Amino acid sequence: MRVCLYLEAAEMVAKSGFRTAFEQQRRALRSAGIEVTDDPARDDYDLLHLHFFGPKSLFYLKRAQHLGVKVIAHAHSIGAHDFEDSFTLVNSISGLYEKYLYYFYESSDAVMTCSQYACEQLRAQGISKPIFVISNAVDRQRFKFNPEKRQHYRELLQLQRFTVFSAGNVIPRKGILDFLEVARRLPELDFVWFGHLWPKFMTFYPDMHNALEAKPPNVKMPGFVSDTPAAFSAGDLCFLPSFRENQPMVLLEALSLGRPLVVREIPEYHGWLEDGVNARLGSSVEEFISQIRQLAETPREWQRLSWAAEELAKASSLPVVGRRLKELYTLVLEEVAPAHQSV
Fold first, then answer.
1. Which residue, 65, 121, 136, 295, has fewest beta-carbon neighbours within 10 Å?
2. How are beta strands 131-133 and 219-220 bridged, if at all?
3. pLDDT of 232-247, one tens digit each?
4. Of 266 and 169, which is predicted with more confidence?
5. pTM of the predicted model as reported, rounded to 2 decimal places
């Protein structure tokens, strides 16, 4: 079996979860013994797996189907739900964006997404093609806690205390305002947000930029970092107060490193993250403050959630996801895919 994984505009999304998920999936497929190419212009692959939905991706989708090649559309986005409150003016075109996504996904032979919630939302939008739910993959050998790298990054960022971190594009949807407010009210802790800060004209949200300019002194924002295992190891707890997600790579990577999670309680995490079992889920600044403070002051509880985090990460390891992808591709190639299935 030879599969083409294609990520249109790879450089444009180089600092996003799209690129990370794409790279990790390629590693997962190779761990399962599947030959992978990333050149959709070739005509010697059995299946095309598209990680983006731009005009080039649509062109190669139509070309593949003309050649009799099966196509899977990877639903990183499910429409307005995860499109709004990101970049300037996107809210005004979210309806058109969702209609285009519907056309793109419905044109494929099957759709893959990484959460049950996303699957249900796509089905509610009228997608009739088979939808498969498979977790994103995390390279557990790469995302393995390293005390030396931790020390290096803590010195680099001048971190002296219990450190709360997050990562992602600096946009309102990610919960940056709540992150800053929690940091302001926990001055005894250090906070770090790793992620690209776009020019103001691209993310024109005055409230967000005012808050960033007045961020408390215990918050550091070093921007995008390439050595994420080392950078995340410098932190003690991952806090992502995002309002809308699918399955963020930062959470999988933090889990693999044994960093406990504090996240907003949103339906996307149902069936994956359980409050008090493998993460802490909250719905307000006050709850986040209480949860973070307890984990910072209770080493035994921090350690319990650290162990639970690593255990949960095992289900998204490269070999596990690679096997599931191989099962998915086999089903699609043999045209026995049901209307919906979790592989």
1. 65
2. unpaired
3. 999 999 999 999 888 9
4. 266
5. 0.90
Give how far Cα 236 sits from Cα of 184, 231, 267, 292, Å.
Answer: 18, 11, 25, 10
What is the b/e burial string over 303-329, where b = at least 16 CB atoms within 10 angstroms of the residue's CB? Answer: ebbbebbbebbeebbbebbbebbbebb
Q: Which residue has the tokens 């083409």?
A: 4
Query: What are 98's two structure tokens?
Result: 């969702």
| Cβ-proximal residues to 309 (8 Å cutoff; 6+ apart), any chain | 254, 255, 256, 257, 258, 259, 260, 261, 278, 279
Residue 37: partners with Cβ closer than 8 Å, 6 or more residues away: 2, 3, 4, 5, 45
Domains contained in the chain, CATH given:
2-137+317-342 (3.40.50.2000), 147-315 (3.40.50.2000)
pLDDT at 91: 62
Amino acid at 313: A
What's 256's DSSP letter? H
Are the CB atoms for 61 and 48 separated by under 8 Å?
yes
In angstroms, rounded to a whole number, what is the distance separating the alpha carbons of residues 305 and 322? 27
